[in-house]
Amino acid sequence: IDFSSTLLGKPSHDALIRLQDYELKFLEIIRKTVVGRIEHDRKYANSLSQLANTSIKIENAMYGSPLYNAWKEIAHSLSQTSLCLKKSTDFLQSSTLDKVVALTKDKTALRKYYIEHRERIDHKFVKTIYTELDKKHSNYIKLENDVAQAHKAYDAAMEKGKLNPMEKAQDKYRKTTMKLHHAHNDYTLQVMEAQLHQHQYRNAVLPELLSGIQEMQVQSVEALKEALHEFLTHSSPCRAELVSAHKEAENAVINIDPNTEYQGFVDSFSTPLEPEAMVTYEAGKGEAAQLAAGEIVLNNLSMQGVEHLAQGFQDDLEQVQIEIDDLKQTLSNTRRGNSSVQSKHKQTLVSKHVWILMSKQLECVSVKRQLTEQENLQHMMQNMHYVVHNAIQKLGDNDPPVGLHLTELDSISTASGSSNFEVKNTMEGAKKHITLIISTPRTLYDNHKSVMNQSKTIREQTWFHGTIPRAESLRLLRQDGDFLLRESNNAKGELVLSAKAEGQVRHFKVQNTDNGMYRFEGDNFTSILNLISHHYTKREPVTKKTNCLLINPVCKDKWQLSHDDVSRENLGKGNFGEVSKALFIRENIYVAVKTCKEDVDQNTRDKFLEEAKILKGYDHDNIVRLIGVCTDRQPIYIVMEYVSGGDLVKYLRQNADCLLTQHLVQFCHDACRGLAYLEEKKCIHRETSTRVVTELHEMLRQQAIGVFGRTNIPTIIAGRFTTASDVWSFSILSWEIFNCGAQPYPRMTNHTAKEKVEKGYRMPQPDRCPYSYYTEVMQKAWEYDAKLRPRFSELVVTIDRVLRTLS
């Protein structure tokens, strides 16, 4: 049986669809039958169990009665029968029924796959050999008429002998002739393309599609054969009068041969493909009759156009070769994955192999089909490129011949102009610009002892803020009398008292005396805590000149932690410093710690702390959670929720064989929910925090893509950052996920990718990406006009709908 050589015609196509519809109905009947048998056998087993219990509710015989012993055996038989039935129904429920349901889903997917790709290649076939050919032929004939009219006008002008009309007539005649020659070349190449396309459609593309369908149909028969065999085996009746009928059905199932299952179908509906269309070159009868039929015209009128054609074919061939190489690699990986599954289950039955591999086989068939189409496209383009390139090679270093011989005029001027093309960069970046104002809670203490805790060190006091920026202290001190202690931003280890008096914030450096004492202006004290406590409890001004009193200590907020609260181990390096895994001792959980390098400037340190301020304002399952900030000494720590699992790209590549489409869509759904939350916050751009937000966006992605860590979203800056640019980049992330960590725009430089996107190129649908996800999410997110792209909140609803169809 060979679908690829016998089911080529349109009637065969319609019959194959009807067959698939019938098989789906057939599977539904089988499913209902299995469910009904399970229900009835379960009820029967329960009844037998109750009956067996009833049958032994009698005391032992008064003597060794053979009748009683026989009855005990009958009761035992009832009990054993009940247990056997329960075991069989459990197996039918957990194995056979699940297989029938799974097979129904696979058959539905196979039907959809066949219809979509058959319609696609048929449409492309009609478009190539009819629509495009007729269009270019009509244009060719029109230009031929235009040249004839221009020729007549030129002859008339030459007879009159007036210079100005002769110039105009000659120029028009030359231009229309040049257009005719270009149209001739286009028509010639279109005829060649139609011939080659038809040959490939009939002999490669369509047979490959049908061959793949046959392979899947045969495997589905083998899978259903196994399910039916299980059903008969575990529902075998115990009554003698039904054994014969059961045996006959069992033999019938055993005799099923998947390789000959569709022989009757082929015999009934076998039809050949329609006769080949007559694709021939139709020579012109006027001006075009002078041009060589079916050959490239190369002269001074067409030279530039032919060179452009040759370069275009060369560029297209390079791109097709890249796609072919990628498809070959994908096919190799898929086959290797199937081989690993086979070797893993080599001890099981052959039918088990078929069952495990069936869900993966469609992917392999699809890749083979794509590879065949691309190789045939390459072959067609190579032939057309050879024709054009060979015409140029034959010319060599010689000047091209004259395409149109015209009478020389005394004064002919040719005006030439140049046009400037402005390329607009449409590939928008993925970085989010956010402005977020976090208000820090402040606590006022009236109890001097609770404020100045002598049992704690100065760095453990609630009003010691560590190495916060000077500007942050200005924001925290709101009223006269407010004060806090911080570490100097300019000199490591030096402490500064910041306090507000008479509406102005002042900063007092804690001075060290030669004898190890501490002071501001007046008396010396043995410790900084005693110094601050003295001015606080006695209400003595810090300096007489400022008359600054310490009344209200401003305490750290809940996010402030101590360095002693975390125990680090290095994970890697970030833009500001190291990223570490640490134990948060207070709660005995693992956290991620980002460290600011000690040798950075103050501006960089301030921007590092700005990350923490932004994270304070977010609370979402798909966004990494801030635990706190350690500023009591250098270096500064930002403590965040630890996201276990490692790198997402590595995870996807290592687990590509076991990840289902539903899992990949769920990853995208998680990412979209996190980004929709950021969109809901109505974040805006603030110039002073652009780099801070860029760094933060990398951290936010950790949770947005699930629990598997980071992934790199390719970002090409397009001038400004908006939610619409994030939507574009989310679609790029989706493409990476469905391709299990593959690099987007493969084998393209940034410049090449940018130019292709500008011209309308969009990456093709990944093989593991649902069609509805690609069309409703990715393609809409890649709209050229940013206003037409959906919002993240809309994408969440769309992806949720796609997920429900997969469950």
TrEMBL record:
Its EC number is 2.7.10.2. PROSITE patterns: F_BAR, PROTEIN_KINASE_ATP, PROTEIN_KINASE_DOM, SH2. Keywords: ATP-binding, Coiled coil, Kinase, Nucleotide-binding, Phosphoprotein, SH2 domain, Transferase, Tyrosine-protein kinase. Residues 565-803 form the Protein kinase domain. Residues 1-261 form the F-BAR domain. It catalyses: L-tyrosyl-[protein] + ATP = O-phospho-L-tyrosyl-[protein] + ADP + H(+). It comes from the Eukaryota. The keyword Heme does not apply. It is an enzyme of class 2 (transferase). ATP binds at L571, G572, K573, G574, N575, F576, G577, E578, V579, K594. GO terms for molecular function: ATP binding; non-membrane spanning protein tyrosine kinase activity. InterPro entries: AH/BAR_dom_sf, F_BAR_dom, Fes/Fps/Fer_SH2, Kinase-like_dom_sf, Non-receptor_tyrosine_kinases, Prot_kinase_dom, Protein_kinase_ATP_BS, Ser-Thr/Tyr_kinase_cat_dom. Residues 463-554 form the SH2 domain. Residues 310-337 form a coiled coil. Pfam families: PK_Tyr_Ser-Thr, SH2. Belongs to the protein kinase superfamily. Tyr protein kinase family. Fes/fps subfamily. PANTHER family: TYROSINE-PROTEIN KINASE. This is Tyrosine-protein kinase. It comes from Ciona savignyi.
